[in-house]
Amino acid sequence: MVMAQPTRSTRSAPGVGVLFNPALIDFCEQHRQALDHLAVIPDRCWTDPGPGAGGRFEPLPAPVAMIDRVAACRPTALHGIGLSICSAEVFDAAYVDNLAHWARRWRAPWVSEHLSFSRIGAAHEVNAALALPVACDEEMLDLLVPRIDCVQQRLGLPFLLENSVTYVNIPEQGMGEAEFLNRLCARSGCSLLLDLHNLYTNACNLEFDPFSFLRELDLGHVVEVHVAGGQPMMGFHTDSHTGPVHEEVWPLLAVLAARAPALQAVTFEFHESSWPLLHTEGVLAQLARARAVLAAAVAEPTFDRETIAALAPLR
Amino acid sequence: MSLAAFQAALCAMTLDAGLAAQVRREGEPALGHWQLTALEQRRLVAVARQAGMALNCTLARANRFAAVHDAFAMSCVLLGPALRPVLDALWSSQQPRNYQLSGDVERFAATVTAQVLAADAPDGLLGEPQRAYLRDVLAYEAQAYALALGVRHVPDPEHANSPATWVDFAHDPQPLFEALQRFVQPPANLPLARHRVRLALRDGELETTIFGVQDGPAPAAALR
Known about the structure:
By secondary structure, chain A is α/β, with parallel strands linked by helices. Chain A has helices at residues 25-30, 61-71, 93-105, 138-155, 177-188, 196-206, 210-216, 249-259, 275-299, 305-311; strands at 15-19, 37-40, 46-47, 58-59, 76-79, 111-114, 117-120, 126-132, 159-162, 191-195, 222-227, 231-233, 236-238, 265-268. Chain B folds into two domains: 2-49, no CATH class; 56-223, no CATH class. In chain B, β3 (205-212) and β4 (221-223) form a beta hairpin.
């Protein structure tokens, strides 16, 4: 089933919001005018011992009440972390149905998930404790397309998949990630949540040009963008969601926003442990910066190669 | 089933840095446990030989450790170099069963008890007085964790209250807590001095009150 893709009225800037975490509860109520939307991780609102165990999706009243409060303020999209849609042996329809339940409760405009796997094993699951990458090949496309169709039918909402971060390069993949995403969206009708910090992180660590990636990607599928920060670790740039948005991400947003007609939302995400680094002023500053970049991109959408090069001295 | 085997092998390498190192050293023969195509074997060996695989292992351990540390931060400081073998024992005994990684926190206290505190625990993992300090601090943090878990189940956590629970200490908890909350080892020469610590939720916050046993009902100190 192909869902109608969200569209934006011509030349209006996309909205700006945050991925909710518990440090933001007061912020969301006191600065709602700074937020066009929110994204929430619904998995924080239930306990789930996994398929085959009793008591799946037992709601946790405290986090539910928290999200009820923030969802009353602004449109709230769901950003799931537990589906593991790329797992060969696991397709958790009960998990999808639970997502649909909470999406209806919070009147979510769309639901997003990660293009990765962490769950293995059909009868007795094991979890990798880390979102692991998949190969961009025909086998994975064939696995994903019917699953995405099933997810969209059960959700009754647009379904977005997020490009994953990876610290290893799987060889002999058959196609690049941009081509893989283009073909996945075309065949399944899903949309993209393009995480620009994931893109930057992969470009840094795996040594490719993120602007070339944006040129190869069909940006008409991008409905939401994530922007975030990271930090160095063991010789890599990591997607730790630490502090403000990484400086190198802003030029990527400028280029993307000028060329992504379906882009609805830019979402700043940070880990709650970074709240002392940011505080209210820091979060407001990130949102204001995103608005400025988007306004400029909408006003002057004709980025040429020289402009991009000037914006992005990546390495 | 081949893709499933590939993913199982990558997951196993992520959870077990020793296996990842073995695949890095030995190549395809180390993957004999899984039925893999030649392409999948080449992919896994290539991945194992990249520096990013070590980072994957570290990040997976960090993700598993985060919840343990949130609940047992002071016990982790007291364990010092003994923390690593305790975590190795904890994690090798059971792989994560779900994406919420539940279970590790609950099993941590039991693993510390078996590995470090039990009468038949291996000698040398932790000396005195850290063992004596750890016995009490671990019990205190287990109670605090149970209270914090309970808060998730009330709709108005900012006004959550709970009945008091008590933990006995063989030493004055005040200098223990002061040092451990700064992530440093407490003084090694604290005198034996029985205390009782009362824990309770007051308006959603953990309230800790220290009583010297000889003091009677008057609290020696109150912490929030």
